[in-house]
């Protein structure tokens, strides 16, 4: 894909989302950074050039009004949306007694409902630009970890990506599911050690999918660190 497209990233304040935003900017694209952490995305937008190159928009992906405003501000500021990366999400401890019901509720709303709202908010804009929708899944969305409700949410994202692909077939919009294994990000409470994926590894694969010619739709990327067995 040529440079100077508009790339929207949810969950852009840290980890994979921030790495995708940096990789998109390095490829010459304009970026829209969406997250609840206003200070972080404002700082990242400034780092990436601000003004007509990077826009920070506070967005709670579980709130429809926020998502709709994100899409509206993107188009008002940049005139279009070419690539949307539905990345916002978080995990939980394994075990059906390990987290509070309210924690579960917020995780399911963020990981599943939030991703669906991102699709809803941008689908018509992507139709107009014949753009690219990417959803951040997980290896846990292909294999079930013991007691993992997080894994169940990522199985839902796996299905959502296929549902979006089939609905958008014939429109020119491409859909990619990105499923990383263990990535050394703030997702984990403690550092996971050497040999695991870095956020930049995932960002590089996102941009690889985006860079394919329009007739190539890379539907799924499943990537593990070499040291990961699961």
Question: What would your notes on this structure say?
Answer:
- This protein has one domain: Rossmann fold (3-Layer(aba) Sandwich), CATH 3.40.50.
- Helix content is 43%, strand content 16%.
- It is built from 6 helices and 7 strands.
- The chain has a 7-stranded parallel beta sheet with strand order 3-2-1-4-5-6-7, with helices on both faces.
- α5 links the parallel β5 and β6.
- α3 runs parallel beside α4.
- The longest helix is centred in the middle third of the chain and has 29 residues.
Specify Rg, calculated over alpha carbons. 16 Å
Tell me what portion of residues adopts beta-strand conformation.
Answer: 15-25%
Quickly count the helices.
6
Return the CATH topology.
Rossmann fold
Strand order of the largest sheet: 3-2-1-4-5-6-7
Taking all residues together, what is the mean pLDDT? 94
Show unreliable segments.
Answer: none
- Helix/strand structural class: alpha/beta
The share of residues in helices is 40-55%
CATH superfamily: NAD(P)-binding Rossmann-like Domain
> Major β-sheet, in short?
7 strands, parallel
Shape: globular
> Would you identify the CATH architecture?
3-Layer(aba) Sandwich
Number of domains: 1
